[in-house]
Amino acid sequence: MTPTDTTPDKPVSDVIVIGAGIMSATLAVLLKALDPALTIAGYERLDAVAAESSDAWNNAGTGHSAFCELNYTPERPDGSIDIGKADKIAEQFELSKQFWASLVQEGVLPDPASFIQSIPHMSFVWGAANVEYLRKRHAALLRSPLFQGMEFSEDPAQIAAWIPLVMDGRDPATPVAATRMAMGTDVNFGALTSSMYHYVKGLPGVNFQLGHEVEDFRRKDDGIWRLKVRNVATGESRIVRGRFVFIGAGGGTLTLLEKTDIPEANGFGGFPVSGQWLKCQNPAVIARHEAKVYGKPAVGSPPMSMPHLDTRQINGQKELLFGPYAGFSTKFLKQGSYTDLFRSIELGNIRPLLFAGARNLGLTRYLIGQVLQSPQDRTAALREYYPTANPADWQLEVAGQRVQVIKKDKKAGGVLEFGTEMVTSADGSMAALLGASPGASTAVAIMLDLVQKCFPERAASPEWQARFRALVPSFGQKLAPNPALTAAVRERSRQALQLEH
């Protein structure tokens, strides 16, 4: 039976969000904080929130702040270090911390220890050329107030005191170096997302439904979006209506965006990348490591594949992971379909897909190599960061699925992007978020930009401007050129989130 939409007085939600991950949760909480009278409907095809990319086991959980991620600080041809992207990401994560701190203070979020912990962020390299790169990176980053306090060492004894597993059994003749930022964090985005949904679902005018899949979109002359929504359990479909729609369905966003038929969606494609972790099973080993240690990614690898030996706190349990090992799957979601990639191909994105593929043959070869890795290969990669690792202590776990953005480019035909991309309709009634890392960590910055773009008149009003500043005290100001403001907002966040540093 085809659902109909003939009832003239059918309810219309102010906002419809699709997907129950960190992005949709952040937007829903932010909008209700700005205007409690807004009505919000939400739909998630799975029977749980945060079950895909926001889940703790599917997400790196670093709290990406560019303290340790070396791909955010590329070396220029003249040998200098470009810290522009690092500054941007560090500032975006500070916005997230400010927002979470406000939600804790207002009683929206529970005990912050349920979702955020203090943990040093470290970069570790070996070899003379890499040591020189890390030295220059450290000096360049110290020029920004966002990286004040970062330590650097080439002393094996000092590094061993910081990260004993990494130095155990390492060849003393090999030059090594490390940077350490004590104020790093570990974030359980699954727990954070669940807490946000628990809060917002209890507010008046909010209706979130799990086990409901959005199948199609239509917009009539009245400007209202009609969404065809199917109950996954019963198979029954109905039409729901909304004035503004946000698609925050992770890897599922691209396929849904294509169904909206907005011109701005034309030309976007997706390249799926899967991942795996080695999870430590030995409590004695886990107890000896207390840091997130990132190294240099392999040539041709995607940013999500930066190797790291990673202390995590997941559901009250200390964990130790290494990876991720990249792979390729035609699924766009971990719980998706192997036809996802093929169903996303349409006339408007064939050319960008072909050109981006031709320009990234190295990435393709890298992924094929990762797929063909043996257990011995994975152990060898682990031992680059933990030389005395015993493979019996480690178990392979499947991580999340990511979809990297491919978009049109006038010069190149099509380019593969390794970040996030917000697509909005010209009238601001539809928005969709594509892409992957460092998405979750920068959710607040992304949603603040979305609200200002899609609700411009209300966002500019004195009432919303005051509320923005109450939730995010540095709103509208740049932290990088302002050491005093940076220090003040960090201390506020540290106290509210009960962080150690």
Report on the architecture of this protein:
This protein has 501 residues and is an alpha+beta fold. The protein has one domain: 3-Layer(bba) Sandwich (FAD/NAD(P)-binding domain), CATH 3.50.50.60. Helices cover 32% and strands 25% of the residues. It contains 16 helices and 20 strands. It has helices at 22-34, 84-105, 128-141, 156-162, 164-167, 189-200, 253-260, 283-287, 340-343, 350-359, 361-371, 375-383, 443-454, 456-459, 462-471, 483-497; strands at 12-18, 40-44, 116-118, 121-126, 151-153, 176-181, 185-187, 206-210, 212-219, 225-231, 237-247, 269-280, 292-294, 308-314, 317-327, 394-398, 402-409, 413-417, 420-424, 430-435. Strands 4, 5, 6, 12, 13, 14, 15, 16, 17 and 18 form a ten-stranded mixed β-sheet that branches. Strands 1, 2, 8, 9, 10, 11, 19 and 20 form an eight-stranded mixed β-sheet that branches. Strands 3-7 form a two-stranded antiparallel sheet. α2 (84-105) packs across α13 and α2 (84-105) crosses α16 (483-497).
